[in-house]
């Protein structure tokens, strides 16, 4: 069920019987010369809507702009300042609870959002309003991702390239994959920007001149389909597990 497609009277039965919502979040930021700037939010929305289709759980509209100032040197990148992002996501979550939602899966596809979504989840849980958990597709199937690619990225690498080749092939510049690989860098380790245990980089451009890492030529739509199916199963399992929990068991424990 996709919330934005429904008329309000038709949502009443959902809120009477279910208390879980899937909230997709991503970013609008550079993903190299070969992928669209919407890569992260396109992936997040695809997973959330797929899980909603399979389960009947509620999927909300996608939050398309995330915490991405570290990509700002590249044309078109948009970002929300971290406090504003946290406040906005928390407000969205709290308005869902007004209608009866008390558990939320943040279906996230942007690493820059992770810490902030965890903080929002803590706030909601600490005051007993809702239990919200952050989910990342590639972290749900790490072994499969590692098996699929010799060097998976992370940013704008073959795993994200394969995913967009599967979901939105018309948005991938396949003729630029070799240029993306050759103009980028294999890994953060290869950038040599970790000095004596300290990460000396703040922006993506400090590591890679074209904004991406990994070997993009290792991506295929077939690999993307395999990863999408496997991670979708994990998201469905997470949503079902969360829906089955007693809300009281999800709240913080009493002080010892």
Number of helices: 11
The neighbouring-strand order within the major sheet is 2-1-3-4
Distance between the termini: 42 Å
Q: Tell me the strand percentage band.
A: 5-15%
- Assign a percent range to the helix content: 40-55%
Characterise the protein shown here:
The mean pLDDT is 97. 46% of the residues lie in helices and 9% in strands. The strands form two sheets. The chain has a four-stranded parallel beta sheet, with helices on both faces. A two-stranded antiparallel sheet has the order 5-6. The radius of gyration is 19 Å and the shape is globular. The chain is an alpha/beta fold and 256 residues long. It has helices at 8-17, 39-55, 82-98, 114-126, 137-140, 142-148, 158-167, 177-183, 188-191, 221-244, 247-250, and strands spanning 20-25, 58-59, 103-108, 131-136, 194-195, 198-199. α3 (82-98) packs across α4 and α7 (158-167) packs across α10 (221-244).
